[in-house]
Amino acid sequence: MATKKGNSKGPSSSVIAQNKKARFEYHINETLEAGLVLAGWEVKSLRAGKAQLTDTYILVRNGEAFLLGSHIMPLNTASTHEIADPTRTRKLLLHRKEIAKIFSVTQDKGHTCVPLKLYWKRNKVKCELALVTGKQLHDKRATEKDRDWSRQKGRIMREHNKA
Questions:
Q1: Is-contact 116 129, C-beta < 8 A?
Q2: Cα separation of 86 and 73, whole Å?
Q3: pTM > 0.85: yes or no
Q4: Which parts of 3-136 fold into alpha helices (H)?
Q5: Is 83 helix (H, G, I), strand (E, B) or coil?
Q6: Which residues contact 73 (CB under 8 A, 6 or more apart)?
Q7: How far is residue 163's CA from residue 149's CA, in Å, rounded to a whole number?
Q8: How far apart are the C-alpha atoms of 79 and 34, rounded to whole Å?
Q9: Where is the region Disordered (predicted)?
Q10: Per-residue pLDDT of the chain (163 residues; tens, 9 = 90+)
Q11: Is the dihedral of CA 81, 84, 89, 91 positive or negative?
């Protein structure tokens, strides 16, 4: 079977940063893809993997969507002529209908919009957004229980395959 030439990296290599806390804290109702408006030093930092999405959320203001709370650490070698703000508000590139949908859903009580991950799509940085509702304590416990059981199943299967 022939293999593809060029990109030998796996599919997970395109992910820059993930918001694992969001998957634990919220029920994900719907996901969207958005582009990001970035400065040159931010792109260099993202290539080096210096990004964090914990405690990040999406804000819709004046018909535009913004990413608040994301942290992109500037590199020492980049941005010598520019003052780099690692937590600046970054604009999201979405269609008008998508922005209207995010705005209308987030007006409901208990609903919000959070980023799930930053990733490369060809040579562009994309952000996967999710329209979510908050989980209650018993839902979080069930998630932990399922995670522990799947881990235990994996151990049992490995032990069984060795024998």
A1: yes
A2: 5
A3: no
A4: 20-25, 40-47, 96-106
A5: coil
A6: 45, 50, 51, 52, 86
A7: 21
A8: 25
A9: 141-163
A10: 444 444 444 444 699 999 988 888 888 999 999 999 998 888 888 998 888 998 898 999 999 999 999 988 888 776 567 777 788 889 999 999 999 999 999 888 888 999 999 999 998 999 999 999 888 888 788 888 888 899 999 998 888 888 7
A11: positive
Structure tokens, 98 = 């998508």
Q: What is the DSSP letter of 86?
A: T
Q: Report the C-alpha gap between 90 and 69 in whole angstroms.
A: 9
Q: Which domains are present in the chain?
A: 15-134 (2.40.280.10)
> Which residues sit opposite 57 in a β-bridge?
68
Amino acid 12 reads S
How is residue 36 written in tokens?
A: 């990001």
Phi, psi angle pair for 119, to nearest 5°: -150, 165
Please name which of 79, 77, 91 lies closest in space to residue 41, comparing C-alpha atoms.
79
List Cα–Cα distances, 56 to 16, 100, 155, in angstroms. Answer: 15, 20, 34
Kind of pairing between the strands at 15-18 and 124-134: unpaired
